[in-house]
């Protein structure tokens, strides 16, 4: 283990809502004490998990220099401070800030504060209720050095075991190509936020997290912006994080409709704007909802729906009753074998016993060119 560099001290908060402003002298000290990796950790309602989380940081096998940067959005500072001596003995410097307002400022705000007060050349985002495995920082650091303009993720172990089984399987099994092609699905970012690792330079290029607070998917918004900036998405194909499921997690405050709108807008921006015509695979509820949410320009590009349901196919068409056009648009409904690419797939993955996947494979189509998954 390398000898620790000069350890940084706590930044105390002096304003009612804000962490103390960093002075010029402190900023100069920050420049002198740059470390390799900053572990960025917002803390809110996580006191019961902090000891396990912090113990895991001590066990990292990374031999470079590290710091832990915490923004306390409730009242967990005493727990973290109790680990200062052990962290510093391991060579991990600690910087903490927070606020004394009765109201939390939100995940995006906390992540931005914890990032801005840190000084690492690389950023390792850590949720206070999760546990990093010993190789996490080392392996993701090595990957990030090779991919400096990318968000780096990893495979995860979900606890309690069996929680969100389909979601966890998707996190761990999508291919490197699908890390880019499946960014429009309801699962959200293809490398999940609790596993993110990136260079500070890339974070600064993308910009800060949205600070809208509760109900805002700040990770998805940042993820989309990173892709807009030309950023890559990569994953270390080892399990490096124990990813905890519990009802108090911030992600539960984001509604499906909020996610839906963001996904539709991103799909229109990145894919449909490049296509002249396309087919929606699913003539049922989800396919029709997607059609209704498209811009008028993109609605006109829908040449057909396709399905395997004979009742829908025999009806022959879908009438868009809400349309102001006269006559109202009638979109053909075809069997998938009679339809033509490109497709937007509005059938959930891993929910048909492999039938959807077999049907797609039978057409010998290429994901990311001939079709994209939306659900």
Topology at a glance:
Blueprint: H1 24-32, E1 35-43, H2 47-58, E2 66-72, H3 77-81, H4 84-89, E3 92-98, H5 107-116, E4 120-125, E5 131-132, H6 136-146, E6 150-159, H7 165-173, H8 178-181, E7 197-199, H9 200-206, H10 218-228, E8 232-244, H11 256-270, E9 278-281, H12 285-293, H13 296-299, E10 302-307, H14 310-315, E11 317-319, E12 330-335, E13 343-345, H15 355-362, E14 371-373
Parallel strand pairs: 1-2, 1-4, 2-3, 6-8, 9-10, 9-13, 10-12, 13-14
Antiparallel strand pairs: 4-7, 5-8, 11-12
In short:
This protein has helices spanning 24-32, 47-58, 77-81, 84-89, 107-116, 136-146, 165-173, 178-181, 200-206, 218-228, 256-270, 285-293, 296-299, 310-315, 355-362; strands at 35-43, 66-72, 92-98, 120-125, 131-132, 150-159, 197-199, 232-244, 278-281, 302-307, 317-319, 330-335, 343-345, 371-373. It starts with 23 loop residues before the first helix and ends with a strand.
């Amino acid at each position: 283990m390398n000898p620790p560099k000069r350890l940084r001290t706590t930044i105390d908060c002096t304003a009612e809502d804000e962490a103390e402003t960093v002075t010029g002298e402190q900023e100069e000290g920050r420049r002198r004490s740059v470390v390799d990796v900053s572990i960025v950790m917002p803390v809110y309602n996580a006191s019961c998990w902090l000891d396990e989380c912090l113990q895991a940081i001590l066990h990292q096998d990374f031999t470079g220099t590290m710091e832990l940067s915490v923004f306390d959005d409730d009242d967990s500072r005493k727990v973290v401070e109790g680990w200062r001596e052990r962290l510093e003995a391991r060579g991990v410097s600690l910087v903490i800030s927070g606020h004394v307002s009765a109201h939390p400022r939100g995940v995006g705000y906390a992540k931005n504060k914890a990032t801005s007060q840190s000084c690492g050349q690389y950023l390792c985002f850590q949720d206070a209720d999760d546990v990093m495995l010993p190789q996490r920082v080392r392996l993701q650091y090595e990957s990030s050095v090779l991919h400096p303009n990318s968000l780096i993720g990893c495979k995860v172990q979900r606890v309690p075991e069996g929680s969100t089984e389909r979601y966890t399987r998707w996190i761990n099994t999508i291919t490197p190509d699908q890390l880019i092609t499946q960014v429009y699905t309801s699962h959200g970012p293809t490398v999940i936020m609790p596993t993110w690792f990136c260079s500070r330079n890339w974070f600064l290029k993308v910009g800060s997290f949205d600070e809208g607070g509760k109900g805002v998917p700040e990770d998805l918004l940042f993820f989309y912006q990173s892709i807009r900036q030309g950023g890559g998405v990569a994953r270390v194909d080892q399990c490096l994080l124990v990813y905890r499921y519990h009802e108090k997690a911030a992600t539960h405050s984001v509604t499906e409709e909020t996610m839906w709108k963001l996904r539709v807008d991103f799909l229109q921006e990145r894919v449909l704007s490049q296509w002249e015509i396309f087919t929606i695979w699913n003539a049922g509820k989800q396919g029709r909802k997607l059609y209704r949410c498209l811009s008028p320009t993109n609605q006109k590009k829908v040449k057909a729906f396709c399905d395997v349901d004979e009742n829908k196919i025999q009806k022959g068409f879908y009438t868009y009753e809400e349309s102001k056009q006269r006559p109202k648009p009638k979109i053909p409904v075809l069997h998938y074998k009679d339809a033509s690419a490109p497709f937007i797939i509005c059938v959930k993955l891993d929910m048909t016993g492999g039938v959807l996947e077999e049907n797609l494979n039978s057409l010998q189509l290429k994901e990311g060119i001939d079709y994209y998954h939306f659900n």
